[in-house]
Amino acid sequence: MAEKKPQNFGNHVRWDPLFHFFMGPVFILLWITSIVMLVRHANWFSVAHVVITSAALVAVFKIRLYALKVQDRVIRLEERLRLASLLPEGQRPLIGQLTEAQLVGLRFASDEEAAALAQRAVAEKLSRDDIKKAIKVWRPDYSRV
Q1: 126 CB neighbour count, 10 Å cutoff
Q2: pTM for the full model?
Q3: HEC string of the chain?
Q4: Is the pLDDT of residue 2 over 60?
Q5: Phi and psi dihedrals of 14, rounded to 5?
């Protein structure tokens, strides 16, 4: 098995070739084509075609967004559990102050820096990207959707 490339802020984004380079573009082109057909040949069939392709395009992107939302919820739970074991007893209430976006950003932080970065995230109201940029020792996540 080939070694996986170490992740960092610059290369951690995951592209799904079948979605990003095939299915998404195909449905967008189909939708554009249906609009062109409606403009050129306005009739009930072309109106129905625009409605159906619009629904299909929305469905494709909503299905993708549902998977990402579930992933974020799982990450939120994992990070709350991880922080509960890393933070001292007196600092555990801090976990409830972290937003979902902050917890998702913290998933890449090593155990050694996660607690301090969580405190900083709450105090400075850091965004997901600000948290990721502040990470010094990156904890890779190769199983993202």
Answers
A1: 22
A2: 0.79
A3: CCCCCCCCCCCCCCCCHHHHHHHHHHHHHHHHHHHHHHHHCCCHHHHHHHHHHHHHHHHHHHHHHHHHHHHHHHHHHHHHHHHHHHCCHHHHHHHHHCCHHHHHHHCCECHHHHHHHHHHHHHHCCCHHHHHHHCCCECCCCCCC
A4: no
A5: -105, 125
**CA 75 to mean position of chain CA atoms:** 10
Could you read off the pLDDT of 47-60 as tens digits, one per residue?
999 999 999 999 99
CA angle 108, 138, 130 (to 5 degrees): 60
For tokens 């990207």, the residue is 129
d(CA 68, CA 107): 15
Q: Where are the domains of the chain?
A: 17-134
